[in-house]
Amino acid sequence: MAVLISASRPLLALARVAGFLVAFLVLTWALAFKTSFIPHHSQTHEDLIYSVMHPLLMVIGFILISGEAILVHRWLPGSRNLKKLIHLCLQGVALTCGVFGIWTKFQGRDGIVANFYSLHSWMGLICIFMFATQWLMGFLSFWHRGEVRTLKVRILPWHIFLGLYTYGLAVATAETGLLEKLTFLQTRRNVLKHSAESMIVNSLGLGLALLSGLVILAAVLPKYNHYNVLQSKLTGSETKKSSSYLKERKY
User: Fold this and answer.
1) Does residue 246 have a pLDDT over 70?
2) 29/33 Cα distance (integer angstroms)
3) CA dist., res. 132 & res. 102, Å (int)
4) Mind telling me which InterPro entries this protein's record contains (predicted)?
5) What sections of 44-190 are H helices per DSSP?
6) Which among 84, 97, 138, 145 has the fewest CB atoms less than 10 Å away?
7) pTM of the predicted protein model
8) Euclidean distance between CA atoms 155 and 56, whole angstroms
């Protein structure tokens, strides 16, 4: 347990490195291979901008910022309320980026239905809906933190679980999007399987998988203070049991 607790800081550092790597890869892909984002049967500059903005908003704006919001409780010093406020603000920024990221797919000439037919698109809509619900719950909980305290304590584990599940779902949705896009490029636009673009997209997928694992592990890792309290309680209970047992033996 002590080894896990001492590994918290290296995990945060690794998560930041993985985040910078993911940001670098998605920026390189979007800027160096812009022609791959030109929609089918469209050559307009506006459609190109919308297509490029979608992966940037969803990966950097939605996944990376929401991951940083999850890690706020691990590295930010200060009171619990301050941490909750920063967490809420970062999640609000991530939600805004996610909504605008989906909004860009509504701007194509092919229409709304043409952009929401695949597993990737369905998962994306579900993920944004769940994320918005989670953020609204956190917002109401922050501004009414003195009310129904017992109820808040009961729903907190579910809030944490759904938050981490939604984050994992967002990463899984991005992975399906990368697979969908790369399959389209290789089959319709003759992008070679061993080309530089294919390597960048595959590396981006691996980077997202690594990042999600580090963020979730850092989030669920026991805190030192909580571990000390738990250990003291367990030690105290064991001491009481031992003393009562000795008294029984004595009499």
Assistant:
1) no
2) 6
3) 13
4) CYB561/CYBRD1-like, Cyt_b561/ferric_Rdtase_TM
5) 45-55, 65-75, 80-105, 119-143, 149-188
6) 145
7) 0.81
8) 33
In the predicted model, is pLDDT for residue 6 greater than 50? no
The single residue listed with the structure tokens 């759904």 is 162
Question: Encoding tokens for residue 155?
Answer: 């729903």
pLDDT at site 223: 64
Torsion sign over Cα 183, 187, 192, 195 = negative
CB 56 within 8 A of CB 30: yes
Write out pLDDT tens, residues 181-202. Answer: 999 888 887 788 889 999 999 9
More reliable by pLDDT, 56 or 221? 56
Identity of the highest mean pLDDT range in 66-80, 109-123, 132-146, 151-165: 66-80
Q: pLDDT band at 101, cuts 50/70/90?
A: very high
Give how far Cα 224 sits from Cα of 8, 105, 134, 220, Å.
10, 45, 27, 12
- The pLDDT value recorded for residue 145 is 58
- Rounded CA gap, 68 and 82, in Å? 15
Tokens 């609204």 — which residue?
136
Q: Which residues contact 146 (CB under 8 A, 6 or more apart)?
A: none
Which pair of tokens denotes residue 72? 């706020």
CB 5 within 8 A of CB 221: yes
CATH of domain 2-235: 1.20.120.1770
Which of helix, strand or coil describes residue 198?
A: helix
Evaluate if residue 215 carries a pLDDT over 90. yes
Quote the tokens at residue 34.
């812009």
Cβ atoms within 10 Å of 24's Cβ, excluding its own? 14
